[in-house]
## 1
Amino acid sequence: MLTLKPKKLKPKKILIPVAVVVILAAAFLIYRKLHHPPAPPPQPMVVGMMKVASGNDVSAYSYAGSIVPRNSSNLGFQVGGIISSRKVNLGDVVRAGQVLYTLDPQDYNLKLTGANAQVAAAQSALELASVNHRRAAALLEQGAISQLQYDEQYNNYQKARDNLTVAVSNRDEASRQVGYTLLTAPADGIITQIIADVGDVVNASQNVVGFAFMSDWEAQINVSELDRTKIKPGDRVDVSFWALNDFQEHVPGHIREIAGAADPNTRTFLVKVALDKLPRTVELGMTCRVNINPASTGQIYIPLSALVTNHTDQPYVWVVENGLARQRQVTTGQYGASDNIAILSGLNVGETIVTSGVIALNDGEKVAPYDGENRRLGW
């Protein structure tokens, strides 16, 4: 039986293909290394940061308010009558003594004319009584009349003098009533309301026009029950105005008065704020923002956004040490204003903490601050 034996390959023929494969693999690796450099190291996580400071709540207590006059009133005539003219319009700035309204003075002029006539008659009667009194005195010395007759003339003289006094008083009152037909500004101020107009019949002391004194304007805000316990009269404030460069212009002031009871509807407390200096361009009723800075307590406050709670409900923050975020447990206190919270322990003044981007961090991760528009700052 014929048996076929396998043909043996020479070692040289086997090594040639292997060498080709090795050379091609090496060339591929060299190509990749030349054209595909190694991946760069991971970039630091861009986060919001802040330095821990002691003192007041970081953002203080911020409230919206409005500018109001400290003193205002509704003005009215001291006598009744028909309004004959109105000299002002809503919003007019007036000076002390300026005429605002007038009443028809005809009836009061007639009373003044009658009062002047009574004064003239009383003066004539007094002159006659004075002459009769002097004559009676001379006759009494001569014994031509009795003491009773003299006393009668003296009594007539006294009555005439008193009647003149009454007549003069009536004339002065009538003259003042003529003056009362002019309603004038008691001081420099601004017209805030038109209540009555020409042709209206008004009584004495009836409200005719709203008036705000220019001497002192202030800001009024309403604070919550929680914040009421943290402020007091005299606390410094910072007031800015929406109409003046979009809250960019600031005016210092202080809390002048706090309501003793909460409003029954809103449960807030009315707070009046005196301004150190009022900008010339500010008008009554303008919107303002009042930032209250209560007396320093030395307490550390951080934004609520910096606080993280783990599965054990133990709050912690990310403290930045040498550019790395380190997890640190803290003990919290009462809530402050503007979404802040007090830290009782776990943080020290001057340390830097992460305030935004806290959820995506890992312990030991490299971080860098940003400028508020997601643009990285130099670290």
## 2
Amino acid sequence: MPCKFLSLTLKEIMATITFFIRTQSDDPKKFVSVRCRLVVSKKKQLFAQTGFKVIAGHWSKDNQRVRKIAEATYKDEVNAGLLALEKGITDALTLHTGEITKEWLASTINKINNPEAEENDKENELTLFSFIQDFIDNAPKRINPKTGNPVTYKVQREYSASFEYLKKFARKKRKTIDFDDIDLKFHQDYTAFLQSQTVSRKVDDEMVDVPMAKNTIGKKIQTLKTFLNAASEQGIKVNNAFKSHKFVSVKEQTDSIYLNEQELEAIEQLDLSPVLCAMTTTQKSDIENQCFISIFLRFWVTRLIFAPCLYAKKGIRAVV
């Protein structure tokens, strides 16, 4: 018996799937091909080969399967294959957004019957998501052209977080998102999706879920544009809608005072050894051989203990 659920009409697209054989031979022991009929509407039905063959006399027209008889030693393999096809085509129909054609049906059946070949094709095919994953994997080796320094861990973390939201959006839409899908309509839908997301924030010593801030949403959009710019620079064909002034990264004013990425990297490159030498009475060679914690402790011990004692001895009031 075919799966009861799968034999039901797909209400969303008004389609049904059936399997049948057709032969003009009177020989009941002759192998014939099992075909698939996909009824899309009252005026449209498509046909394709399933890749399975059965002996005509073993076929059950009512059940659309090989009859469970001893002579049909191949029945389990064929029946399991047809069940997998029925489920696979049903799943593919629910995800497919384009026109349903006989070429689409034949291709879908081939992918279901040959999953290994399909996986190899996917591995060799450059998609938006495979490009982004490669971009993230190679981020630690990439040099920031503005600073000449490696991409910071904070930026790498933002790449990964933005990618996760993009994958989450694709799962919600139940569709594959590729380079040519990134248009102004996508921008509108993706922005609305991000606005519906929440993030955890500490409020009054408790972690609570709050709506994603506009600046955070803007950061996710800007990071996506970074991915697309990198792809475009490598000669990959992308939808240039992301360069439109309407493909904006939303922002809002904030009272928070912070340093941007370039400012943080500039501070990281500063040689503060002369300052530390003066503040801790330490030789530069010693500073280069000591960890920051050691130097930090020496500074505060000097400032909080020895300096006040010295000032008191000289009659000077120390301001710490």
